[in-house]
Amino acid sequence: MLTILAAGSVFFPGLFLLSKQCLKSIPALRWSEGDAVIVSARLVSSVQAVMASSAGYIIASSCEDIIEDQHWLTSTYIMFAVPYFVYDIYAMFMCYWYKLRVKGHEEASAAPQHMSSALTSYLRREFLMVLHHVVMVTVCFPVSVFWRQGKGDYFQGIMFMAELSTPSVCLGKILIQYKQQHTLLHKVNGALMLITFFICRVLLFPYLYYVYGRYASIPFHMVPFTVPWHCNLGAALLMAPQLYWFSLICRGALRLFTGSSRSQRPRPPTAAPKEQQTDGSALPQPANGYSTRSTEPELATH
Q1: Domain range list for the chain
Q2: What does the pLDDT look like over 51-86, one tens digit per residue?
Q3: CB under 8 Å to 242, separation ≥6 — which residues?
Q4: How far lies 273's CA from each of 182, 259, 265, in Å?
């Protein structure tokens, strides 16, 4: 158990540091520290998502009895992935910190000047995501490894597959970060994000209730009244933030597909940035791809 935990504790931060160093040192890239941190964090999240989804598919496809059948990969991957959620809290904060430091970003003028104030601002803004990660470590981990007593590996595998939506979420964040909302890739990825998030996260628990209803030979609408109350409570608490994040994705998709033509209209000459009017020289375009004004928020978190 400790060996697997140690492996996860080394793998995810190590992959982050390796990716960041490569992005900074490869001659063809030479990215700044902030750019390398942001993209590396998204890369690690996507790698973890692919690993979790693959493990989930292997587990679910090998369980004929959805309650009694077991697979060694279930507890093993849970132990391996727990350090990821601890690491990711730090990685998300570093992304937030460097995003505020980037010249020309819409929030740069209000950026906290000290790490402590930035941490407070980060916890306030990303409270739900941080809480989600803390619950995964302090509640879901012991429940999945110890409380289940080896039962329901199929359900655990299906829940791993919820991560299938994460790579498209991460790619969407990167494209927005570097002002690529006008590209075909962003539109295709947005549609893919909407579909995968809805299937893998919003429909997750209704599907699990449906599968259990078939297994127990009871109608779907009777499943919530048949399973233990704590199962319903856990499902509700896990599903609530998914619905909230899905609503954000829908709002972002609506802005993307209905407001793109409006956002691409050329600005009139009188709409020049205030800094340009003041000193007579245009602000240089930052090398990291930011424009001087951001008009579209991130669609969702991962």
Answers
A1: 1-105+114-163, 164-255
A2: 999 999 999 999 999 999 999 999 999 999 999 999
A3: 197, 201, 202, 204
A4: 21, 22, 16
